[in-house]
Amino acid sequence: MHTIKKIYCRTFQTAFKLALPFLPYRKPKIAGSVKAIPGIVTSKGASRVLIITDPGIKKLGLTDQLERTLSSAGIFSCLYAKTVANPTTDNVAEALKLYQTNACDAIIGFGGGSSMDCAKAVGARAVKPRQSLEKMKGILKVHKKLPLLIAIPTTAGTGSETTLAAVITDAQTRHKYPINDFSLIPRYAVLDPKVTLSLPPFVTATTGLDALTHAVEAYIGNSTTHGTRQDAITAVKLIFENLETAYQDGQNLEARKQMLRAAFFAGCAFSKSYVGYVHAVAHSLGGQYNIPHGLANAVLLPLVLEAYGPVIHKKLHRLAMEVGLADRNTPHPEAALRFINAIKDFKIKFGIGNTFPELLREDIPKLARYADKEANPLYPVPVLMDAQELAGLYTAHLASSASDNRLANCS
């Protein structure tokens, strides 16, 4: 990266870090069951609820109990169930129309990060109907208080129930961009492990590694606080202790509960400390090829940690100690390697590959520019990279794909 751009990025990040204590961050209030929602809705003076979810959640009937619970309490609800894996501006427009047509005054995001991001964007458009989402992208451009927003995560990964961000894909250009504002933080997060029991093993794994990515990127970045470091460490420990159990035994309620807690703490950590190039690259891949975000993060995380190099070894040493992979006497490089290899071992156990078959070489310059634009100067990454350097992260997967194909042909 050019020296002048480096100075600009680091100055921006330092200013933002100094401002952290004065910014209106908050954690959502936690409810332990969907049964608590009618009381929350009525206590906030709302009476007409739009539930935003995806086709898979609807097909499994996971919203049925919520709809019955609201109806029994005399609360009107309507359902938007067309959210796609990387929610689009079309999804938001359709859901907003349903919200307005039914005179709703509260929104529930029910599902993974896509449904919750869609719900946040609908809330933003509801209070700013004359402004496009494109005009809201970036930092602090929503300004207004949203309608009552409740998040019910059905995957233990995205942490979207805690964050100030909504990531939306332009339906026409396929450009994926974040909208960041404090008003997007849900008022309540419902951490009910029962709604996660039907999550398939592979999705359990990729969303769990998504949460791990949030925690690790928040921890190794340059804008941490004591609180975000503790939240990140808590999340990492919970994931190492519970993810494999949740993957192997999806009906284990305790493991599911602890993974929801892990995703929540990881979300709290990166809400303040932000993420890094894993996310920037993953967002570009999700926008272009509709690759699920958790899967993209899971594939990318070890590669990006290796690309950062020695500058993060001391911090990875601490994380390795926290999960029992090293002790104080372990050299930093060795501890860091053990931690990265543990993530690679997770991927092998869970059947997560190292490549993106969809990735086309001719798309890499455009994708790298998107990642550069998203990450710089906002993300306080340990090592700064420009578009040309980020392109190497994509190219590495192309080279890996070719290697995998050669090995497959030889066998």
In total, how many beta strands? 9
Query: What proportion of the residues form beta strands (DSSP E)?
Result: 5-15%
Question: Looking at the structure, what is the overall shape?
Answer: globular
Helix content: 55-70%
Supply Rg. Answer: 20 Å
Strand order of the largest sheet: 1-9-6-4-2-3
- Give the quaternary arrangement of the chains: single chain
Structural class designation = alpha/beta
Order of helices and strands: HEHEHHEHEHHEEEEEHHHHHHHHH
Most strands sheet: 6 strands, parallel
Count of discrete alpha- or pi-helical segments spanning 4 or more residues: 16
State the low-pLDDT regions, or none.
399-411
Distance between the termini: 41 Å
Mean pLDDT reading: 93
In short:
The chain has 411 residues and is an alpha/beta fold.
Name the descriptors.
single chain, 411 residues, alpha/beta, six-stranded parallel β-sheet, three-stranded mixed β-sheet, 16 helices, 9 strands
Task: Tell me about this structure.
Helix content is 56%, strand content 10%. The protein has 411 residues and is of the alpha/beta class. Strands 1-9-6-4-2-3 form a 6-stranded parallel beta sheet, with helices on both faces. Strands 5-8-7 form a 3-stranded mixed beta sheet. Helix 8 packs antiparallel against helix 9, helix 9 runs antiparallel to helix 10 and helix 13 crosses helix 14. The longest helix is centred in the C-terminal third of the chain and has 24 residues. The termini are far apart. The C terminus is likely disordered.
